[in-house]
């Protein structure tokens, strides 16, 4: 594992001069951040040794390096998912590369289904999570870093306060909530949505949590942001589809990108 990570780091360092202190995972609905970034370098995942390929619409799969927001940021434009048939080790490989490259702060974004306390179109801070994916990326002898990782303060309190400050200044409503992560790719049944509410989750997604676990194992500070695109387990006209999720993301992309861009400008790595 470490040999593969080192190989990928050597590759990106050769193509992308500098040492980014901030990493960003761009989920569905957050892509406008990249479109206005004035990137210094863009590398397709297919060219980076060991990087997984993205097969889901809305996840182009490219590493973008940019100083547009102040600190040098390494942006993962799109993510691979467990439901694409990949192992969790493959899914989190880009996060391991960012850590080895020197990234100290990870901002993980996603699209989610709402459960309680949020509505479609809301932007929300992830303040905690519930891992229901049936697996953990730290399992196994091939996992680099510590095996036993403290997850009590997974989402950095200082970064949460900063995000709320930026949101107030930009007059962007920002909720808070606990994120449940499930394997997917089927959406939640009404009974499953009720179960997640009973467990205390406010939002549900099919990603993010494995990345966050590895980021914490690597010593990164983590900020999580979610765009609520639908209500999980609720009837939808024509049925809930990935296209409908992307459509809500498109509606809110300018606001989401503005919040994230202003926030990155206030980070010091």
What structural class is derived from the secondary structure elements?
Answer: alpha/beta
Count of helices? 7
Arithmetic mean of pLDDT? 88
Largest sheet: 5 strands, mixed, barrel
What is the CATH level 1 assignment? Answer: Alpha Beta
Described by its quaternary structure, the protein is single chain
Strand order across the largest sheet? 5-8-7-6-9
Order of helices and strands: HEHEEEHEEHEHEHEH
Percent of sequence in beta strands: 15-25%
Please report the distance between the alpha carbons of the first and last residues. Answer: 26 Å
Level-2 CATH architecture: 3-Layer(aba) Sandwich
The CATH homology group name: Nucleoside phosphorylase domain
* Overall tally of domains: 1
Principal-axis shape equals globular
- Rg, alpha carbons: 17 Å
Structure described in brief:
The chain has one domain: 3-Layer(aba) Sandwich (Rossmann fold).
Quick tags:
269 residues; 22% strand; Rossmann fold; alpha/beta; 5-stranded mixed beta barrel
Question: Strands, helices and their partners?
Answer:
Elements: H1 2-15, E1 22-26, H2 32-35, E2 41-44, E3 62-66, E4 73-77, H3 88-101, E5 105-114, E6 123-131, H4 157-169, E7 175-181, H5 190-199, E8 203-205, H6 209-217, E9 221-231, H7 242-264
Parallel strand pairs: 1-4, 1-5, 5-9, 6-7, 7-8
Antiparallel strand pairs: 2-3, 3-4, 5-8, 6-9
